[in-house]
Design brief:
Blueprint lengths: L3 E7 L7 H13 L3 E5 L18 H11 L3 E5 L9 H10 L15 E7 L7 H13 L3 E2 L5 E3 L17 H16 L3
Parallel strand pairs: 1-2, 1-3, 3-4, 4-5, 4-6
Helix pairs in contact: 1-5
The chain binds flavin mononucleotide (FMN).
């Protein structure tokens, strides 16, 4: 088996996103144990069946990244107790067959879910909705542990950078668990 490949999907397009910062911390935790890439998808258009075939270049690119990954790790904000529309749009694209002979690329992919938010739910309600969607798409979800970080505003330094307190231990545990999950341990 070659080096494991993890693709992180961050459900926020915000430059200083806390979820992006969480993903970057997770990358540090994973270290040399796997390749860890954050998926760029801001250029994926809104789903429109009129432009589905041939797939836009951005869609072909993200499909290729997902296809070659061993694991997908979602880092999602919570918007109105749901996960953001940009993430739903991306998943809608990925949920579609590539062609008559090539099925959709999410099926069977192993996945972990984390999230950080300003509110007290720590994104747990959004995560539950995300689990419903990706389970329908036949992704294999690592439900234990999931990471929910509430009250992000309490864990920032003077420049708005995330300084996780006790949550850092849970992120470490989740990274270890996901690497085991990917290796069938
Ligand atoms: C449209 C919208 C709805 C939101 N709804 C929630 C919510 O339901 N629960 C919550 O904890 N935070 C909510 N927030 C605040 C987010 O937690 C906060 O904007 C967070 O920083 C978003 O994640 P990001 O930093 O990764 O972009 C909402 C923010 C927006 C823009």
């Amino acid at each position: 088996m070659g080096k494991l490949k993890i693709v992180a999907i961050v459900g926020s397009l915000r430059k200083d996103s806390y979820n992006l910062q969480l993903a970057l911390l997770a990358k540090e935790m994973v270290g040399e144990r796997a390749d860890f890439e954050i998926l760029e998808y801001a250029d994926v258009p809104l789903m429109n069946e009129d432009i589905e075939f041939p797939a836009p270049e951005s869609v072909a690119r993200v499909r290729e990244k997902i296809s070659s990954a061993d694991g997908i790790w979602f880092f999602t904000p919570e918007y109105n107790h749901f996960f953001p529309g940009v993430l739903k749009n991306l998943i809608d694209w990925l949920s579609r067959p590539v062609s008559d002979t090539i099925p959709q690329v999410l099926s069977g992919k192993m996945t972990a879910i984390s999230g950080i938010g300003l509110g007290m739910s720590g994104t747990s309600i959004a995560q539950d909705h995300l689990v419903a969607l990706i389970s329908f798409l036949n992704m294999k979800v690592m439900n234990v542990p999931r990471l929910t970080v509430p009250n992000a505003w309490q864990q920032l330094d003077g420049e708005g950078k995330l300084q996780l307190k006790e949550s850092i231990l849970f992120l470490q545990k989740q990274a270890d668990a996901f690497l085991d999950f990917l290796q069938g341990k």
